[in-house]
Specification:
The protein has a domain at 2-134 and 142-187 and 223-251: Rossmann fold, CATH 3.40.50. 30% of the residues lie in helices and 22% in strands. The protein has helices at 16-28, 98-119, 154-169, 195-204, 225-237, 256-264, 289-292, 302-311, and strands spanning 6-11, 32-37, 58-62, 79-84, 122-128, 139-141, 174-180, 182-184, 208-212, 219-224, 245-249, 252-255, 270-274, 284-286. The chain starts with 5 loop residues before the first strand and ends in a 9-residue tail after the last helix. Bound molecules: nicotinamide-adenine-dinucleotide. Residues 11-12, 14-18, 37-42, 44, 65-67, 85-89, 104, 108, 126, 128, 180, 182-183, 189, 191, 194 line the site of nicotinamide-adenine-dinucleotide.
Length: 320
């Protein structure tokens, strides 16, 4: 009975991305056994509610830190795909908590590598486009532009370390590294510290939108949850084939001004400019050409994602 199900393990599965991927997998796929691992470090219990409403699939949940789990545990036996999303994820916080980030993220990935080796699963690892940087205006960056690897935070430095560890350790196994742009889109475990979501929340409360000085015209890459799911599905569906590649996963490159304009079309907004620890002069675009060659078609309409986020809050607050 068990063998008829394809086992997909998702670590950090209750977070912003994980909650979306889990629900989508369960809604759209058949005969999968989804194993979610998450110690609820950020208390996202609602991501667990009503997960499996049909009998096409199986779901298990383990309230555990992946670093403390045994590779030989039956939980992992027969795993076909491991989506390793478990991480501390606030780039700005990583400046003051570098060791904590290193301990959690790098050691978590070390464990994910061990599980991959033991089970022969495909490892899907979300890296970040924040591993890149460039001082050239409007530079278009590709995966193999080594000189553009200029991480701007300890979080991004650690992502590069994790990537290198995966490449070195899993040469003879199967992995795919996806360098994700900043996430756009709604999910039950969503966070509100990233640009679009934070701005939408502030606009909904009639607060001033807080924009990092210098960042208004800077162009950065964004990825919608829908695109993240669709790309992961491409690799899940061909998990028996060896991939061992890095892909940029970007829906669109946008400036903060572009995002504010999209919000403005729906809501009145006021702006205020603030300092940030990540104050760099960089403006760059990330190419998604390599991923498009695998069949990935980026979502066209980001407006709808912004409307969905704004519609989560329908207050009528006065200015304060
Ligand atoms: N959100 C983005 O904009 C973005 C962009 C690029 C890359 N990523 C990467 O994608 C992944 C998921 O991001 P997210 O936005 O869903 O993050 P999130 O913070 O919303 O979720 C991360 C989840 O991981 C869990 N977790 C943390 N440490 C763990 C551990 N040791 N063992 C098991 N679970 C643990 C947390 O409890 C949390 O539920 C992360 O690796 C992140 O770095 C995110």
């Amino acid at each position: 009975m068990n063998n008829k199900f394809t086992k997909i393990v998702i670590s950090g599965g209750l977070g912003h991305i994980g909650s979306y991927i889990s629900q989508k997998l369960l809604k759209t796929q058949k005969k999968i056994h989804l194993v979610i691992i998450d110690p609820l470090y950020s208390q996202r219990y609602p991501s667990l509610f009503n997960l499996n409403n049909n009998s096409k699939n199986k779901v298990s949940f383990y309230d555990q830190d992946i670093r403390n789990m045994k590779v030989s545990s039956r939980i992992f036996s027969n795993t076909k795909v491991l989506i390793h999303l478990a991480a501390k994820t606030e780039a700005e916080n990583s400046f003051s908590k570098k060791n904590e980030y290193l301990q959690n993220n790098l050691e978590g990935t070390r464990k994910a590598i061990e599980i991959t080796k033991k089970t022969g699963a495909l490892l899907i690892f979300p890296s970040s486009t924040s591993v890149y940087g460039s001082k050239i205006k409007n530079d278009l960056i590709f995966e193999n532009d080594k000189e553009k690897l200029l991480p701007q935070s300890p979080y991004a430095e650690i992502k590069l370390k994790e990537e290198n560890l995966i490449k070195k350790s899993l040469k003879n196994y199967n992995y795919v590294i996806l360098r994700l742009g900043t996430v756009i889109g709604t999910s039950t475990g969503m966070r509100f510290h990233t640009a679009v979501n934070k701005f939408s929340y502030q606009a909904s409360l009639n607060k001033k939108i807080t924009i990092w000085k210098n960042a208004f015209l800077q162009i950065r890459p964004y990825a919608t949850l829908k695109d993240i799911f669709n790309s992961m599905l491409i690799f899940i569906n061909r998990h028996e084939k060896k991939t061992n590649e890095i892909y940029n996963l970007v829906t669109k490159n946008l400036s903060v001004k572009d995002i504010v304009t999209l919000i403005k079309a729906q809501k009145k907004v006021r702006l205020t400019f603030v300092n940030s620890k990540i104050m760099n002069e960089m403006t760059y675009k990330i190419s998604n050409e390599k991923l498009r060659k695998t069949g990935f078609v980026p979502q066209k309409n980001l407006r709808n994602e912004i409307i969905k986020t704004l519609n989560l809050f329908n207050f009528h607050n006065e200015k304060n």
